[in-house]
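User: structure tokens for this one?
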Amino acid sequence: MQLPRTLGELKKSGYKPRSVKEEMRANVVRMLRTKEELFPGIIGYESTVIPGLVNALLSHHDFILLGLRGQAKTRILRSLVRFLDEQVPVIAATEINDDPFDPVSRKGRETVAARGDDTPIEWLAREDRYREKLATPDVTIADLIGDIDPIKAATRKLTYADEEVIHFGIIPRTNRGIFAINELPDLPPRIQVGLLNIMEEKDIQIRGFPIRMKLDIVMVYSANPEDYTNRGNIITPLKDRIDSQIITHYPQDRQAAMRITAQEAWTARDCGIELFMPDWFRELVEEVAFAARASEFVNQASGVSARMSISLLENVMSNMERRAIMHGERRVYPRIGDLHSAVTAITGKVELVYEGEQQGAAIVARKIIGEAVKETFRRRFPDPTPKKKKKDSGEDQPARTESSPFNAVLSWFSKGNTVETSDEMPFEEYMKRLEKVQGLKELASRHLDLKEGDGAGLGMEFVLEGLHQHSMVSKREEGVKVAYRDMLKAMFDHMAQSED
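Assistant:
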């Protein structure tokens, strides 16, 4: 279908102009009725954040997304273009996307007055109607709203009082669209003041000129609560003009977190090697982020981004890939050692408190991994330290009972046996060493529901690491090598070395 190219053709087509907020509301209503997915790719917000967003759009609200880093705030803002019409008509060659039926710029008004129904029309795609600005201390009013252009005044022989000498900023150039400011508290207060008229009266003033340019624009923002104290704040009058404040959050359950990581992580490697990743191990990777968000060594006010799990999974797969290439293997499973080899994905994603800084980022990262292993182990296996009544006191005391499923494994270690693994060890050697541990393979297969060849080595190593995190088995690390042995023997050896 040929789109109208002049104002006269546009009138004959029956086109009815409407504001951006009316346009977005109508499209939201249509999508709700047809049960279309409103925010594709946004996971875990179905019953929390998305209803608030829909209510804001239905209410014609400007809004702010308030949440810690890595909570999909920018992604949500960029997805708002879905609620715009595919194309809208604008007067050709105008800087601020003038509506042919209601031009706001001087050039737009003069063009319609001079050419009438012959006014040329262009069509603006929805993708070109969204713009955003990252708030930084060096942002100026000229960047956002505009300034006088002395070169334009000189070349065209115009006075500074002439509207034609104005060089418009990014906000007027987003007229009839959506403008987003990320990290709003980083914007200096004097610049925030410049947004007040845009938010309430929808007009702009430049250098004190009495310009009354009524913009049709949706203003949306994002902010991190930590920024209110660390880097700046949102001035009260501006906060009052933002109609809705929507709180974002991290995934509230592991399944949602796993879906986010699976969606965002680069896992489709083209190396000719099959990288097998069991679901329960993906759950373990995700548990690392949950453990970090509960760690006493991590600054929880700063948050732990969902990007940490994504980077961690990618690093784990790269370590698997590297091992397979080194040994010429065509199929490779992850190992617990792969998690420890991927600590670089954790150290750069968490901000430590003073106690964490004292210990060091790498040590804290390994402790977080240990907590994740421990929690995942608890969900998959019986408690390795069950309680039994102590006859004389009646108190619950940790003890290993005769019915413990871990008895065979612990008895093997109590005989002085040791098993050594490494994330760089060839698969056959890795399996050979783990299979020496009595009852280990049967235990892992039973509780992890492993099938033949379905990551049995990973399951066995996970059992050993889980027992270590419950202080049932000792662990010694030397570079990439890890040795598991009896806890009691390790304690006596350590005491003997201390005496020497």
